[in-house]
């Protein structure tokens, strides 16, 4: 297995913080995303490398294994387990037979990664298959509802259900849809990184949505009804008389769905932006002047 420098792929130092890793990944993912580079095989290859690097380095446990074992990081648990077993066996042999030659035992790394499986009394060593990485770009209004998608990974079509409420940069694991295991080991997993594009008028913060609504002066002063767009359709809302500019209104349960909690939603916050009338007629100006005198 060839060593792949994940830090170099993301263009960061090996002491980078999680925030720096996330920032570098998002920047590169947008640059090399297949939707931005249709038909560009090199961009597609780079996008896969970037996703793989992010998947390893954004996970503190995997990152620690990678930093310690390099290209063999996926087998860190097996390595450490085998090292402990070898140490135990050496101690046992030394106790009964004294010192022995290192030539009596094959080097663990060489046997595991240099040319085939190591034979033991219980049979061949089994290894878990390689994880596959894929990126999926969706619009914000698409992940408002749970829906099904078909992904093509390594020439195979995989039908999956995408739960409502998926977040930008979130990684979902599809178990046993990765590479074949070695010597009868379990299959790897498929890890999908989501890139969510906001194609709506709303700003999403966790499960809450925020938007502004232009309110004319007369309705702000006198009150009335307005129709508000939400991701779940239109809603009629009463405006109180003498509503001030910047007033915020909360529509409970009209925000974004909570991931994997069916029926639960965040809230929608609306900020009124009062628009002053322009191009007044002479009569309108006269009426405003009369109103000003009354207020005085």
Commentary on this structure:
With 296 residues, the chain is an alpha+beta fold. The chain has helices at 6-10, 18-32, 41-57, 60-69, 76-97, 108-113, 217-222, 282-295, and strands at residues 119-120, 123-124, 132-139, 147-153, 156-162, 171-174, 190-197, 203-205, 208-216, 224-230, 233-239, 248-251, 268-275. The protein has a four-stranded mixed beta sheet with strand order 8-9-13-12. Helix 2 (18-32) runs antiparallel to helix 3 (41-57).
CATH domain topology of the largest domain: HSP40/DNAj peptide-binding domain
| Sequence stretches where pLDDT stays below 50 over 5 or more residues | 96-123
Report how far apart the termini are: 84 Å
Assign an overall shape: elongated
| Highest-level CATH class of the largest domain | Mainly Beta
Helical percentage: 25-40%
Helical segment count:
8
| Cα gyration radius (Å) | 30 Å
Total domains: 3
Concise structural overview:
By secondary structure, the chain is of the alpha+beta class.
Features of the shown structure:
296 residues; alpha+beta; HSP40/DNAj peptide-binding domain; 8 helices
Task: Give the secondary structure arrangement, pairings included.
Layout: H1 6-10, H2 18-32, H3 41-57, H4 60-69, H5 76-97, H6 108-113, E1 119-120, E2 123-124, E3 132-139, E4 147-153, E5 156-162, E6 171-174, E7 190-197, E8 203-205, E9 208-216, H7 217-222, E10 224-230, E11 233-239, E12 248-251, E13 268-275, H8 282-295
Parallel strand pairs: 3-7, 9-13
Antiparallel strand pairs: 1-2, 4-5, 6-7, 8-9, 10-11, 12-13
Helix pairs in contact: 2-3
């Amino acid at each position: 297995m060839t060593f792949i420098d994940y830090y170099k792929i993301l263009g960061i130092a090996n002491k980078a913080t999680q925030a720096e890793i996330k920032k570098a990944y998002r920047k590169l993912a947008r640059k090399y995303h297949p939707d931005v580079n249709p038909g560009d095989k090199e961009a597609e290859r780079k996008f896969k490398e970037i996703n793989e690097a992010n998947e390893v380095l954004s996970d503190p446990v995997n990152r620690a294994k990678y930093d310690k074992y390099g290209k063999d990081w996926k087998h860190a648990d097996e390595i450490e387990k085998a090292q402990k077993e070898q140490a135990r066996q050496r101690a046992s042999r030394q106790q009964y037979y004294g010192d022995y030659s290192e030539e009596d035992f094959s080097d663990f790394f060489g046997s595991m990664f240099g040319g085939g499986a190591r034979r033991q009394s219980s049979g061949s060593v089994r290894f878990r298959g390689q994880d596959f990485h894929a990126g999926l770009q969706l619009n914000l209004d698409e992940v408002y509802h749970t829906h099904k998608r078909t992904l093509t990974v390594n020439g195979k079509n995989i039908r999956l259900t995408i739960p409502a409420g998926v977040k930008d940069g979130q990684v979902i694991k599809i178990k046993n849809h990765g590479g074949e295991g070695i010597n009868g080991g379990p299959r790897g997993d498929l890890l999908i990184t989501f890139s969510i594009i906001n194609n709506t008028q709303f700003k999403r913060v966790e499960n809450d949505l925020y938007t502004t609504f232009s309110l004319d002066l007369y309705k702000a002063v006198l009150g009335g009804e307005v129709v508000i767009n939400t991701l779940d359709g239109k809603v009629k809302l009463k405006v109180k008389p003498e509503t001030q500019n910047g007033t915020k209104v909360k529509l409970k349960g009209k925000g974004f769905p909570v991931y994997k909690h069916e029926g639960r939603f965040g809230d929608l916050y609306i900020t009124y932006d009062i628009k002053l009338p322009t191009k007044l007629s002479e009569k309108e100006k006269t009426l405003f002047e009369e109103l000003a005198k009354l207020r005085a």
